[in-house]
Amino acid sequence: LGQPVRPGEEIVYRRVRVFQGKILTPEELKRCLEDRLCLYTRAAAVRVEGRERFFFKDTRTAQAFLRSVQQMYAVKWDQPVSFREQVQVVVRDVPADRVTSVEDALAAVRRGIEEKWRYTVKDGDTLWNIAAAQGLALEDIIAANPGMNPDRLSIGQVIRLRREKPLLTVIQQYEVTKVEPIPFSREIQYDRRMHRGQVRIVKRGQPGKKEITYRVTVENGVEVNREVIATRELSPPVKQVERRGSRYLLASRGEGRANLGWPVSGPILSGYGMRWGRMHTGLDIGAGYGAAVSAAGSGTVIRAGWYGGYGRTVDIDHGDGVVTRYAHLSGINVGVGEAVGRGQVVGQVGSSGNASGAHLHFEVLINGVPRNPLNYL
Ligand SMILES: [Zn+2]
What we know:
This protein is mainly β and 377 residues long. The protein folds into four domains: 5-111, no CATH class; 113-165, Membrane-bound Lytic Murein Transglycosylase D, Chain A, CATH 3.10.350; 173-245, Resuscitation-promoting factor rpfb fold (Single Sheet), CATH 2.20.230.10; 268-375, Distorted Sandwich (Glucose Permease (Domain IIA)). 14% of the residues lie in helices and 45% in strands. The chain has helices spanning 26-36, 59-73, 102-111, 127-134, 138-144; strands at 5-7, 39-48, 51-56, 81-83, 87-95, 113-120, 158-165, 170-182, 186-195, 199-203, 208-219, 222-235, 240-247, 268-270, 273-275, 278-280, 283-286, 292-294, 299-306, 312-319, 322-329, 331-332, 339-340, 345-348, 359-366, 369-371. The strands form seven sheets. Strands 14, 17, 19, 20, 21, 23, 25 and 26 form an eight-stranded antiparallel beta sheet that branches. Strand 19 (299-306) and strand 20 (312-319) form a beta hairpin. Helix 2 crosses helix 3 (102-111). The structure holds zinc ion (ZN). Zinc ion binds at residues 270, 280, 282, 284, 361. Zinc ion binds next to loops. It comes from Ammonifex degensii. Residues 117-161 form the LysM domain. GO terms for molecular function: metalloendopeptidase activity. Keywords: Signal.
């Protein structure tokens, strides 16, 4: 040890008479004392949360040990470190064999200490939710409870739990400043002169920059918390302006050729216009009962159901004021709000509502007014 020791018991010297053969040589006396005497030495005890965990030969060594633990876990050399636990160094006499070296004590800190407790199984518990709630690995619980059947827990059953816990927790708090982007917003302008799906970037957006200062807390080298303590805008983001096409049809007020597809193929039984003194607002296309009716263009379903004399009806909004209507259906395949593609089956030909026989009544409405579908097909 390189320092004075004293015996734990008092040694008394007395003059007695013995036989010659019982007198010990100095070497024999030494061996005898080593076996029987507990030697005490003055040592520096390190108390963690009130419990003496380590003994060093002096206070300086104890302090060097504590500094080494802090260095072992520190992430920022230039920032202060502290222990989460209450740590004290006290000087007292301890059995000499309990004094350790700094290296051995550091190894013990790295190993940690085992924490043990018990858990009583409650109604509805599974081993998995117990493990999750207690922050343990399932295999560790199984290993700590030999003979337990993990699939059959009973209420009131006591389970042994244990975990390795660090003996000392080194805390470091420091600030970091980072430059981060600020996302830009978009302004969308719809343009009737451009086709749907076309996008033109009028003004390109630029992310801004902000400087954020965080306070970071690290425990034994692991980041456990990061809070924003200051934010400063370095440059504002620039909004992106996009122009998107909203034109679905070519201008087709009778003169142009448009791009709606035929919803069913068949003869035109009755055209758009006056019929027996009444206006016929659509096209009657002959097709067999149950024939598939497909969307004339892509759009959004705005009606799907019974609609008076039209019977079962589907209306599709194609944007730009264009709506197509499919009436007298026997079945409907789509729902209101559903996006449909051109050619997608929306229902079946039938004779529901005011219809004399199976046919499709097809309408094209521009801004709510029925127009001659033939100008758009
Ligand atoms: Zn009709």
